Amino acid sequence: MTNVHEIHGRVLIVEDNRDIAALLVDFFTEQGHIADYANDGLTGLHLVSANDYDVIILDLALPGIDGIDLCKRIRTALNSDTPILMLTARDSLNEKLIGFDSGADDYLVKPFELLEVHARVQALWRRSLHSNRSELAVSNLTLDLKTLTVERSDQAIKLNPVRLKILRLLMENSHRVVTRRELETYVWGDEPTESDALRTHLSAIRQAVDKPFNNKLLHTVHGIGYRLFDETAA
Domain 10-131 carries which CATH code? Predict the structure, then answer.
């Protein structure tokens, strides 16, 4: 079951053991993430250079380019600061230090529990969002995370704090549908709220974000929730 406080994103799994890779891909997909897979270092390097990932799960013992070399290339040749979790059977302190020195953000030894992998990925995402990301963007809609200002096509949009919070969750998860329950819990926690409160806020967001523009970004997925994305670019 997906926790409503989770961050969802795109993960790359670089692992030459097909059973372990399949286990991780299936698990992260079931949790609502987008999961890509590479079974060797060269393929992993190509995927990182061609796509934007929120986190990389990286085995050390890889054919072609090993995990340490791949991690170094991601940091230097690609100049990427994507969080990297090393997942490996090598458990000595020296191996861990080498991993961190190559640019890894975290290190987990096999055998592992899937829930621990997921928890560490969530921690890396949160750390990355808070420290590195200064702006969210969906199509021509932007939210400055430092000033909390919203613009679309360079036109300022004013939203109250609750609506800003809703918009931020939708923008952070523009790759998927966000359920009504998820939105309600994110904004109000376990405290009861009026049955139409969420609908009222979303209607106001739609008026501000979509009405003055040609194409709409906020979509209702009936019976499930809402998704913020540009269907003309899909």
Answer: 3.40.50.2300
Query: What are the extents of the domains in the chain?
Result: 10-131, 135-233
Shared fold status for 10-131 and 135-233 = no
**Which of 68-72, 167-171, 194-198 has the least mean pLDDT?**
194-198
Number of Cβ atoms within 10 Å of the Cβ of 157: 18
pTM of the predicted model as reported, rounded to 2 decimal places: 0.55
Please give the Cα distance from 32 to 52 (Å, whole number): 17
Neighbouring C-beta atoms of residue 59, cutoff 10 Å: 26
Provide the residue type at 165 as one letter: K
What's the first-to-final CA gap in the chain, in angstroms?
A: 28
Query: Which one, of 55, 180, 58, 61, lies nearest residue 123 by Cα?
Result: 55
pLDDT in tens, 13-53: 999 999 999 999 999 998 888 899 999 999 999 999 888 88
User: Which of 18, 32, 221, 200 is CA-nearest to residue 122?
Assistant: 32
- Could you give the strand order of the β-sheet that contains 10-14, starting from the edge strand earlier in sequence? 34-38, 10-14, 55-58, 84-88, 106-109
Task: Classify 135-233 by CATH class.
Answer: mainly alpha
pLDDT tens per residue, range 102-143: 888 888 888 889 999 998 898 888 776 655 567 888 999 999
Residues 67-91: b if buried by 16+ CB within 10 A, e if exposed: bbebbebbbeeeebebbbbbbbebe
